[in-house]
Design a protein that fits this description.
single chain; four-stranded antiparallel sheet; 39% helix
């Protein structure tokens, strides 16, 4: 398998865990909620101290980089009262995952 295909496979494999862990992490939730819509925050191996423990090793070992942003709409259905977070691979922007988040939690 060539390097690019392997990298794409890694991003597809880990985006679910990244989206879940970041969405559930109180520190990250506050940071994302404070951002304007579509303002990107980086989740990167370059700053491992910011990454939740459960996903830190995978991100740093494989040198993965994602962005997360709050979006006002997406192609997936979420209840109106939820804030939608969009997670995206920096290297492969077509690899995307959305989560619905209760702003009161």
């Amino acid at each position: 398998m060539d390097r690019k295909k392997l990298r794409r496979k890694l991003y597809k494999e880990f985006i679910e865990d990244v989206a879940l862990e970041i969405s559930l992490d109180a520190h990250w939730r506050k940071k994302i909620m404070r951002q304007a819509y579509n303002e990107k925050l980086e989740i990167t191996y370059r700053n491992p101290i910011e990454i939740p423990k459960y996903i830190r090793a995978d991100i740093t070992i494989h040198k993965l980089e994602f962005v997360v942003m709050r979006v006002s709409s997406c192609n997936e259905y979420f209840d109106d009262e939820l804030e939608v977070f969009k997670f995206q691979s920096k290297e492969f922007p077509a690899i995307i995952r959305y989560t619905g988040n209760n702003p009161k939690a």
